Amino acid sequence: MLEAINSVVTAINGVVWGWPMIILLFGTHLYMTFRTGFIQWKSVTKGIKLSVTKDPEAEGEVSQFGALTTALAATIGTGNIIGVGTAIALGGPGAVLWIWLTGVFGIATKYAESLIAVKYRVKTDDGRMQGGAMYALERGLNMKWLGLLFAIFGGFASFGIGCATQVNAIATVCYTNFHIPRWLVGVVVAILTAIVIFGGIKAIANVCEKLVPFMAIFYVLGCIVILCMNYDYIIPALGVICRLAFTPGAAAGGLVGSGIMMALRFGVARGLFSNESGLGSAPIAAAAAQTRNPVRQALVSSTGTFWDTVVVCAMTGLVLVTTIMKNPSINADEIPDGGVLTSLAFGQIPVLGPIILTLGIISFAYSTVLGWAYYGERCVEYFAGKKVLLLYRCLYVAVAVIAPVVALDLVWLIADTLNALMAIPNLVAVLLLSNVIVSETKKYINDLDAKDDTPIPVIKD
Questions:
Q1: H or E stretch including 459?
Q2: Membrane-spanning residues where (predicted)?
Q3: DSSP percent split of the chain into helix, strand, coil, nearest 5
Q4: Measuring CA to CA, which of 55, 156, 183, 287 is 20 to 30 A from 16?
Q5: Among residues 68, 74, 279, which one has the least CA distance to residue 161?
């Protein structure tokens, strides 16, 4: 019976994460890039500066930086470390180029979905900000039924993608490297998670503001050390990545490219999964930000894709490709596990390499647990009401306790499928509200300090 269910879910997952979804997501990235006048440039030049600029007089629950780091906490996860390695193993080194391009163009979609999340956000009678694809669909397009579907998919996906798989990854790395019992890891992570998430968005944002910069800088420094060790292979690696992104062939160190279709498929899929642009998750956090107008926070939120994919994933990819080229004994074609490739790369740093990788996986995974807890709360509250939030938090913590000691293959597949299904309602909102996005962009892009005086509707809990 279980095998039959697993086969059905696997088949569904293959469909929802297949070519139609990849084309829809990447196509939306390209479309919104042109509709917004290549907003990527503004995102990098102005969004990064705005992300560390406080605006306490604006309406919202947390700072712009707090909203960004909460979103980054959920976005930067084990996919940035292990996922890139898997893409290279299955799609060849050319997949790295497609991961990077997905991030570059995905900035526009992250900008667009965050803009409408802020524009159509609401406020509860106790002062909490609520927003995301569900409110954009309900208030912007009068499609509450589709907003409910998004919220249902997101709420249930949070238990798997956001909690179970992440805690299991933490338990695995702690047991493998430090021989800490899996059950003990589950209990500790559950306690730490409960302490934070029962404090709401302000507590989550407060932790993420400190954890995210630390974990990202720590991991990137490790990548820089490895690239310095492999410095004479950086230029050749870039050439191999670009060449094998479009043509089949072989390169030094067991690197094999299967051509544009395989590189595109696994590169784009891993990039989309990593940066979550188009899935509608990050805008839920963006809606809670203190911001003067929707464009201001949209620019800040879009920098999340820049950091996640254009920087972190790209560096991981370059580290892996240079390592394989430097060490011909590593045959990437025979190692389908991205985690093994990444471990071999960081193993080049004596003593500290495995420690950096281990701490990176732990901090990335735990931050994802916190970020997705908030996403799940907002989704569950939308379709079931405030009264179920205590139950949701208790279930979320319970999942963290049991995750290290149960088989998660089926849980992962179901959650991954639900995660992909979140994208469909969200992309409907982005595409059908593209005229609103363009109009708001023209209105505020050259005067980001302008205040949007449109009253935020107050709803009853």
A1: strand 458-459
A2: 16-34, 145-171, 183-204, 211-233, 245-264, 306-325, 345-369, 390-414, 420-438
A3: 75, 5, 20
A4: 287
A5: 74
CA angle 131, 122, 418 (to 5 degrees): 25
Max distance between CA atoms of the chain, in angstroms, equals: 63
Tokens at residue 33, please?
Answer: 């890039």
* Rounded Cα gap, residues 51 and 448, in angstroms: 13
Residue 1: partners with Cβ closer than 8 Å, 6 or more residues away: none
Q: Count of CB atoms within 10 A of residue 47's CB?
A: 27
Amino acid at position 459, single letter = I
User: In this structure, are residues 106 and 277 in contact, taking their beta carbons and an 8 Å threshold?
Assistant: yes
The larger pLDDT score, comparing residue 1 to residue 420, is at 420
Which pLDDT value is given to residue 336?
56
What domains, with CATH codes, occur in the chain? Answer: 19-53+63-434 (1.20.1740.10)
> At residue 55, what are phi and psi to the nearest 5 degrees?
-140, 65
Q: How far is CA 10 from the centre of its chain?
A: 22
DSSP alpha helix (H) spans, 120-259: 133-135, 141, 144-157, 165-178, 182-197, 200-229, 234-244
CA–CA dist 120, 391 (Å, integer): 27
User: Can you give the pLDDT at residue 32?
Assistant: 97
| pTM, two decimal places | 0.91
Residues 6 or more apart in contact with residue 64 via CB below 8 angstroms: 50, 51, 53, 54, 55, 289, 290, 291, 296, 297, 300
- What are 69-119's pLDDT values in tens digits? 888 887 777 667 777 877 777 777 888 888 889 899 999 999 999 999 999
